[in-house]
Design brief:
The protein has a five-stranded mixed β-sheet with strand order 11-12-13-14-15. Strands 16, 17, 19, 20 and 21 form a five-stranded antiparallel β-sheet that branches. It has a four-stranded mixed β-sheet with strand order 2-1-10-9. β9, α9 and β10 form a beta-alpha-beta unit. The model has no long low-confidence stretch (mean pLDDT about 95). The longest helix is centred in the last third of the chain and has 20 residues. α2 crosses α3. The chain has about 525 residues and is of the alpha/beta class.
Length: about 525
């Protein structure tokens, strides 16, 4: 029997019709109203697009956005949020990938979207919600839906300069969310404080945990993450009980000393992911919130949010790494040798690969990159068993716990986002005055370092990249070199460049003290 996300939402609406489903700074919607308004949106959308289309949303996160998403799903379609803060060139690249006939926006952002000259019909969410529901049409669409139909497309960085659209289906989320909420005892009594943008899969755990259990999702305004006082007031006033946040957002709290001002006294659990949690910052959180459960979550977008978790159950020194833990139920973890298809031996570093129902459908209209990352389990020669190769290298510590080591390739995790360094290089090389570019990640500093040849000045490069890349992808450090050193294979010698950078820093330090 098929199970769709809509079944979860409708069951909760039948059980808790007047309970708040989503709330933002200015508005809220109950579960029963969410269903009704989503059906209105769907009744309008299905007149424009056939089922299994992808509908773009150009809106900030909020109650109307959640209604729009569910409207797209009732129309038998998938949704994809186009982040307002991304440069126009990146938005156009996403729209080109999606080839979507419809982009939904609100009145506040209509001029901004029109300026993009998107090759799609623009519809206003305010108008869509006034449509009379067409129950007959929605029933026909529902009958034709299956749990392998796409639910959403979230974009990650792409090595060719083009973002990759990860396609996640109903079955992926319907399998993961019940397990996730049961593991951490999330229920209708909880209030989830949504931090993540709706195009970042951390938010998937907020949206669908709420729809499945009846928990209320309080959508924290993005602007509050530059104002620690307003942020803490919001968390306390909305009686937050669970925070599923990116590590970088939690580090904002500790860096700004926000918890010294006020602490949410109802908070019982903090679940974090996106990058490695610095133990120094974890200690600061534990100092102010000693009775909260802390959980380290691990997993890329391609396996539907997370595949492992570690409940912090002991003290850690500041030079230690938190384990990434054990697999969620119904997810199998394989550690394969990075250079081949064999299983890593005990004590060896291996590439973490994932098998199970939560593995996504692949990359939207990108069969080559899909084939490279979503492969057959090389240990299984008996039947088809798709796995996702994460590119993350892990090892077992002395306690037998999995610990993240590094990336296999030049994809990094920076400010909570997975980034292909080669995408930055592609865009840098396109800048006038830049001949060649190579990027490296300084993990100890959490900074992207860009080497380049050419006559361009750093400020000019940064200004150009701001038109092409999100802010989190713009390098923090730049080093102009006369020529790119080459290794014996004729490729740019990354190690030699890093040695040049280290030598330059040492010389600069010596001149200051000389």
């Amino acid at each position: 029997m098929k199970t769709l996300i809509l079944d979860y939402m409708e069951a909760t609406a039948a059980r808790l019709p007047e309970k708040t489903a989503f709330a933002d700074e200015n508005s809220s919607v109950t579960f029963s109203a969410l269903v009704a308004r989503a059906k209105a949106v769907a009744s309008a959308l299905c007149g424009y697009v056939p089922p299994r289309s992808v509908i773009g949303f150009y809106m900030d996160k909020g109650v109307d956005t959640a209604i729009g998403f569910m409207g797209a799903v009732y129309a038998g379609c998938a949704y994809s949020l186009l982040n307002l803060r991304h440069p126009a060139a990146r938005i156009r690249a996403m729209l080109e990938t999606l080839d979507t006939p419809i982009v939904v926006t609100d009145k506040a952002h209509l001029p901004q979207l029109e300026a993009l000259e998107a090759p799609a019909r623009i519809l206003l969410i305010e108008d869509l919600q006034t449509t009379a529901p067409d129950e007959a049409a929605l029933s026909r669409i529902r009958a034709g839906m299956i749990d392998a139909d796409p639910l959403y497309v979230n974009f990650t960085s792409g090595s060719t300069g083009t973002p990759k659209g990860v396609v996640v289906c109903h079955r992926n989320v319907c399998d993961f969310i019940p397990c996730f909420t049961e593991t951490f005892s999330i229920s209708e009594a909880d209030v989830l404080a949504n931090q993540a943008p709706f195009d970042f899969d951390v938010s998937v755990k907020d949206i669908y945990s709420g729809l499945f259990t009846g928990a209320t999702v309080e959508i924290v305004p993005t602007a509050y993450f530059t104002n620690p006082t307003k942020l803490m007031d919001f968390l306390c006033d909305r009686q937050t009980t669970v925070m599923v946040w990116a590590v970088s957002a939690l580090c904002f709290l500790t860096t700004m000393n926000a918890l010294a001002y006020k602490t949410p006294d109802k908070l019982r659990a903090i679940l974090f992911s996106g990058e490695v949690m610095p133990i120094k910052h974890l200690h600061k959180l534990q100092k102010y919130l000693p009775n909260v459960q802390y959980v380290n979550l691990y997993g890329p977008t391609e396996i539907t949010c997370n595949c492992t978790y570690y409940v912090v159950d002991r003290d850690f020194a500041e030079n230690e790494s938190l384990p990434i833990g054990v697999p969620f139920a119904n997810e199998r973890i394989l550690l394969l040798k990075p250079d081949g298809g064999e299983e890593a031996a005990a004590g060896e570093i291996g590439e973490l690969c994932v098998s199970g129902t939560s593995v996504a459908l692949g990359y939207y209209k990108d069969p080559e990159r899909t084939a490279a990352s979503f492969t057959q389990n090389p240990l299984n020669h008996a039947y088809i068993e798709p796995i996702y190769r994460t590119g993350d290298l892990v090892k077992l510590n002395e306690r037998g716990e999995m610990v993240y080591v590094s990336r296999k390739d030049f994809q990094i995790k920076h400010m909570g986002h997975r980034i292909e360094l080669s995408e930055i290089e592609v865009q840098m090389t396109a800048v006038s005055g830049v001949d060649r570019a190579l990027c490296a990640y300084l993990e100890d500093k959490g900074k992207i370092l860009a080497f380049y040849t050419g006559s361009a000045e750093k400020n000019d490069i940064v200004a150009a990249l701001r038109e092409l890349l999100p802010a989190y992808m713009i390098p923090n450090l730049f080093m102009q070199v006369d020529a790119m050193p080459l290794n014996k294979n004729g490729k740019i010698d990354r190690a030699a460049l890093l040695a040049q950078y280290a030598a330059a820093r040492a010389a600069k330090k010596e001149s200051r003290h000389g």
